[in-house]
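Researcher: Go.
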Amino acid sequence: MIDDVTLARRARTLAANIEPCIGQVYFSPECHAEYERLGFTASRGDVDGVALPDPVAYFTSRGSLMGQVAPQVVAAAFAVFNPEVVVPCVEMGWGLTDAPTIFAARRRGAVAQLARVLGEHPDGVERAVGLLEKAVAPLNVEGRPLFAGLRSQWDDPADPLTRFFHLGDELREYRGDAHTASWTSAGLDAVEVGLMTELFIGLPLRTYIRSRAWSDEQLDAALSRLRARGWLEGDAFTPAGLAAREEVEWHTDRQMRPAIEALGDQFDGLITLIRAWGTAVRDAAGYLRSPQQLGPRR
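Model: Structure:
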């Protein structure tokens, strides 16, 4: 069993490096084109060349990981987004398509962008797939709605790049589910954890959280609650607040232990591969360079 410090470092390193390889699905021009063919609106513009998703297509396509579920279930699983926006978007999306159709379109579009940027068969893809299979194998589905949905839709694709994306998507959503379990059990609500996360990753308050569709009134109320709790002083963490937010992240890391230990001494090899691929995706404007790019435009 690896020590806690190594676990946290590896868990966060894995999350950071897999993100541009897998999270690119939400910015892929190929995905946007797939969704347009299903009747969704085109990309709503770009930030520094990165094509932004149409909200209805975003919520519906990601919701399809769990199958044809009620919009309220999608809002619950996504957790950090304002349900007042998520629910009507998914209702509209289910009026345009069904879950199997948009799930397939989503995966095709993501793999198409990876193939365009990295090539149809990037060097090391079979090794990366094998390592992701090891990482995912010991993970359990309890309390993990998005991960469980993806596991249920595993169809053992023959194409290595498709396998890479699907397995990486599982790992990414598992950490997301774990993070939701961590901050909800800490007694935080979605607006509070969003504001604390901005400070935790070095962003100005009320910037990135705008992409989660919360109103000024909701942000004001959450900031007041955090200050009353003694976790913020003005617009900065108190020592207690920083410790509380770090505790949320640590409990998230701890839930990744089975995956990290399954990789063992092959961890660094996986990171070397996916770090290079993530850099290539960002360089091709396939993924954001900073979360701040989703904040208010100047």
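Model: Residues 198 and 204 are 6 Å apart (CA to CA).
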